[in-house]
Amino acid sequence: MNIMKMRFVRIFASMCAAFVVITSMGAIEAQAVEKSYCYNYDYWGDVQDAPSSYSVSRVFTSADLGLEKKFSAPKGLTVAGDKIYVCDTGNNRIVVLSRPTPQTLEVDQIIDSIKGDVEVKELSSPQDVQVSEEGYIFIADTGNARILKVDPDLNYVMEFNKPDDNTLDPALVFQPTKLAIDTADRVYCIATGINKGLVKFEADGTFSGFIGATKVTYDWTDYIWKKFATQAQRALLESFVPTQYDNIYMDHEGFVYACTGSPDSEDIKSGEADVVRKLNLMGNDILVRNGEYEIIGDLYMGNGGGYQGASYFTDITCLDNDIYVCLDRNRGRLFGYDDQGKLVFAFGGNGNMDGYFRRPSAIDHMDYDLFVLDELDCAITLFTPTEFGELVYSAIDQFDLGEYDASEASWRKVMALDGNYDLAYIGIGRALLRQEKYKEAMDYFELKYDDENYSKAYKQYRKEWVEDHIVWIVIVILAMFLIPMAIGKRKALIYEIENADIFKYNKYGE
Amino acid sequence: MFDRLTKNESTKRYLKSLKFSLYCITHPLDGYWDLTHEKRGTIAAANTILFLTVLVRIIKLRYTSFIFNQVYWEDLNIFLYIASILFPLALWVVGNWALTTLFDGKGKLGQVYMATCYALVPYPLVQFPLMIFSNFVTVDEKEFYTVLSALTLVYAAILIVAAMGQIHEYSAGKNILFTVATLFAMLVMIFILMIFFSMITQGVAYFISIGKELLFRL
After folding, report:
1. Which structural domain range is residue A94 located in?
2. Number of structural domains in chain A
3. Which site among A459, A461, A469 would you substitute to test the B interface, given the most B Cβ atoms closer than 10 Å to its Cβ?
């Protein structure tokens, strides 16, 4: 009994020791890790430094472009064909730039008024511009409460005005901020104060409804609180309304990418509020979210450097290979996601150096080059893909084209440049899977914990294995049944012989 | 030599009691009654079962398919991991004994420990083959694993409750009442331990700061 007691004292002591370890573990605070310019998140959400996918090719300021009147709070940038349209909102004009060589931009045209049969010809705080395939220019003429459609020679064609809808407040002034137009010249727009989704106009100017309103998010404690609040208190509380989109982009397939940064940081982090959506014509969200983490930009929202909260996506653009790049106004970063919703690259930061921003407002792309407009710096930054970025893109393109050998080779080069790049492993695995090298593919998927793809490869591998070994499997199964049966039969036979009457007689010598 | 070992009286008893654990999990009420009242269980066998349980839990970390169990090796502390079984077990055993001994419980501390360990048998017994099985399934067949895995835990929990009822000679109602009470006792013990350690930490910090102060002044 005494020994027993001793043992328990010892066990209790070790328990206490373990407990000390547990409590002291919590005390060590997670130390902030210095991020490099370009980074990515691995399976565990750890920040992994990455080689730059993009590098700054040039920064164009007003002086570089030779503008007499400097940019003032420019809010919109659109690439159409080989032209770049910059909405110089503060100066009530649109500056059209051309790109004679990859490294230079030249002022092509300055639009501050339009021609034709219309009362107000001057633009007022234009915030966005889009160009249709036929060359018609659509201008979100925010200050004049209209969306203008003008022909390539700037002759007035028509305008889109405040939607004729009963649910809208009659006192509300129509302030269109961002536009998207489809191939049939239908206009989708975001307007200040309208939170029912995108305002959709038919090509003839009639209003045809709101599409793609965001989900309403609310805290259930707020909900209960509201039940008990008085009328006056309720009026002061925040109302549960859908958040407004910040920007939209029509991709090459006619889907609208919409982004917003306004939801509460906690809602963004928990995934309750979507900050990026891909809307089809019905306004349904069809964005693929197969990544390990939500499409929210930065996963960690510490207040380092005076910036806190979630990434604020102020603009979005989608490249021709379905990689979409979101622009974070909060920390001045760019986040590229692939068609599966996995982070391809993240880079940037706040500051005055080239490649850093003070308040980025718009992004667009020309092939794989990115143009980012900074509202405070009044400068356009041109990013071009680095060798690493080009390799990633070519690997993705080759895979989409069905050149799996080439894709595998490209991904291997990517992996050689960055061994911490999860997409490279999964890319090699997917290419191997298509080449029917299942066992090798499984190894790559297992390294980066891709269970879906692993299972696809394993299913095929298992099938092949069974087909190859079918003879042995049948033999083993038969043996499992036949051997015990034979043993049983033999025992029964021996028993029968030993107890047979003839032998019995003999045994007793009768 | 092995022959001599198996013929040894105490080894025989140990092996017999280990084998008896299999009878316990299939006939809980009868088995746990005999465990203490007929002295068919031994502490040695209980220790073995506990050791196997911890061992299987550790092996599972490495050899379960990554589909079911992704391990962040950088952050894994094996001693904490082992403690994650032993600590609740110790709390349960001490808490249960401390309560039942005041309310006509017939079980002694050692017997509570033994019976609880005997009830853990389904864990190593099922989880080990299940671990091997996990490497032969795809995501679509995930349910087979998760359901079986969850069942072993539920079964072990039922066995623990049944075992406590038998060794303390409690009726079903009283048994359930004391199971819940033991869970509360565990919470209370955790609470006291936390207070204890935070007090100690503060006390030590106080003297350290006095020492530092003195060193500065001198």
Report:
1. 53-384
2. 3
3. A459
